[in-house]
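Appendix B. Raw example, untouched.
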Amino acid sequence: MLENRPAPSRPDLGAPAGPGGSGRVGLLWSRGYDTGADGRSSVVRLTCLLRRKPGLTPEEFHEHWRTVHGPLIPALQCGSYVVRYEQHPRPMSDYSAGDDGGFDGVTVQWFENMDGYNAHMAAPDFSVMWKDVESFLDTDRLHFIVTEEPRLMIGDPAPFPLA
C-alpha cells in the first residue's frame, strides 16, 4: 500500500547512498547482495516519491539531491546497510512556468533484507542523514513503500538492457 503520512519521530525513510551521478538517468550506486537457499533474493526495496521543500526551485532541489544528499551517505554508518541506491529525477523539461507542485523524483534504496533496513534506520548517525532530508524535502508529503522481490509478469527474467 502506498502511504502518505507525516514524518514520524523516527521516520520510515531509508537513506540514499552513493557517489557520483548523472543528471539524465539519475544517481545509481550498488553493492553486491546474496540470495537465499531457494535462489530468491531477500532484498527489500524502499521506494519514495519525493517533493521538494517549499521555497526551493526545481533546479535547487535537483542540485542538492544529486551533489549533496547522494554523496552524503557513503560517509555515514547508516549508508553501509544500503546495497543499491537509485535517483530517478523528474526531467527539468517537465516543469512548467506555473509549476504543478507534483513529484520531483523517485528514489529507490535496496537493502539486503528487512533486518538491514531496520539497522539502517537504527544506526547512530541516521539523524545526520535525516537532518539533510529535512533541508530539501517536504517531509510532510513523502510517499513511500517497502516492497519485496518483484513478480515478473511480462518480459524476460534476464536483466533489463536499458536499466
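End of appendix B.
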